[in-house]
Amino acid sequence: MREREPVANLEKGATALLFGPRTRTITRNGCEGASVYFAPSAPPRAVPPEPTLEQQTTMTRRANRVPRHGRASECFRGLSLACIAACSAGWSAVAATQPVDASPAAQATTPATKDGTAETAPKQVRKTDRQVRAEAEEALRARYVIAPGTADELGYRIVWQTEPLVTKDATMQVTTATADSVWFGDSAGSVVRIRRDSGETVWRSSTYQGVERMIGIEYLPTPQADNVYVVTELGSVTLDAVTGNLLKRGRFAHLPMTEPTVFGPYMIFGTRTGLASWYQYKTGYNWRAATVGAAVHGKVTITGDTALAAGTNGKVMALGAPNAGIRWTRTLSAGVEAPIAADDSSCYVASRDQSLWAFDLMRGRVLWQYFTQAALVNPPVRIADGLYLQIPGEGLVSFNPTTGKPDGEVRWKSKAKGNVLARVGTDLMAWDTASRTLTAVDAGTGRIVREVALPKVKAVVFDTARGDLFVSDESGNVERLEHLSKSGRATQPEPVADASQAPN
């Protein structure tokens, strides 16, 4: 048999086991004694069971048996004590040398408490289908300006959404849509052209503007040139619509306060100094101006060949759009802040004198006056056969625009918030900028069909000619949505009598 470690090593903590498969007779002080069983030097993988009290008693009795030789009793008595001590040390050494599983899975299965004892790990709770759906919807809300679920609630579906278009440290200022493109501008002067059908960026350009605010983007192609005009508070910047290259700069003689309205070769806008100004955008020439007498806050309205403007001094003017000639004027007892609504025969003015006025378009004769209990600053909107105005204290009010009653005729009142932007089928779509809420209101009864909060949306544009909805947020994510029933003509948005009345 191969030699093992000497007996002296047992006292130093060497590993030894009784009742092992291999034996060796130990001779100490010249005496043959009991058989001691040795384990291999490498510790076993499994921890052997600790001897019972009965097994320890048996070992002691065997060690103390009287042998044949004279000094055996003393020899075996000493040897038995050594064996028992070595055996105890061996058990401790084997337990200490066992490998410890330090994997995260094992630690998670049997975590330790503060006093060092192991505690049972909590069972993993499986997520319900409702929880999984809620997490998925939350992820979609974080990704999209209007999430798919919210779009479906509004009766729309998402066609595409762009990546953030805003220049670093800038904010979105202008979003507008044309037949084949969507145009985006930010406070840093960057302009982006986006394909309407796919949402791909065609080009990005810069107007290199300073601190002036961007007011509007007008795409005005001609047979001779395909140009887009960026209007700021100081002037107009002409860009090549195909490449985005800067072609020309023009300066306004009168600084605009409103978004321009295009009529033929002119941009017409109101100014801070109380003028309605005509600007020839092709040549950059400041052509003519009509004096209103006070700041013009509302966008100039064009209906037919008539331009309508009103000032904060209460003066309302009808001007010839081709020549800037004055056709008639009326002076109210308080100023006008909002744009004027109009149709083919009448115009409608909301004034701070607490009245909604209806004037004959040809001569300026008063048709009717609806008196309220608050100053009116919201714009009246003329769509299809209705006239709508958000009145403080009354809500959204629908009027019969062609009534013969001198004090006007109210059809219904609704608690819907915001100003009407468009009509989609039988529903009016009202947008409230303060609460960022889009509300669908039944055009016939004023009943609120649905009301949806859109906290990420900054700008809402209804393309009244093609039935699409465009929204954008602070980061410049532009999203296009189309109505679920777009193929049916009855559900497409009905255009405002004057397209400029659908605010961006």
Notes on the structure:
It is built from 5 helices and 35 strands. The chain is mainly β and 504 residues long. It has a domain at 7-96. Helix 1 packs antiparallel against helix 2. The chain starts with 22 loop residues before the first strand and ends in a 10-residue tail after the last strand.
Summarize this, please?
The protein has helices at residues 53-63, 72-96, 104-109, 129-143, 148-154; strands spanning 23-28, 31-37, 156-161, 172-177, 181-186, 190-195, 201-206, 214-219, 227-232, 235-240, 246-251, 261-263, 266-270, 275-280, 285-291, 301-303, 306-310, 315-320, 326-331, 341-342, 346-350, 355-360, 366-371, 381-383, 386-391, 395-399, 410-414, 419-424, 427-432, 437-442, 448-453, 459-463, 468-472, 478-483, 493-494. 34% of the residues are buried. The protein is mostly beta strands and 504 residues long.
Biggest sheet features: 5 strands, antiparallel
Give the strand tally: 35
Helix and strand composition category: mainly beta
What integer value in Å does the Rg equal? 45 Å
Q: How many angstroms does the end-to-end distance come to? A: 99 Å
Strand order of the largest sheet: 31-30-29-28-35
The helix content, as a percent range, equals 10-25%
Shape field: elongated
Residue runs with pLDDT of under 50 for 5 or more positions: 1-42, 66-82, 91-98, 100-110, 487-492, 495-504
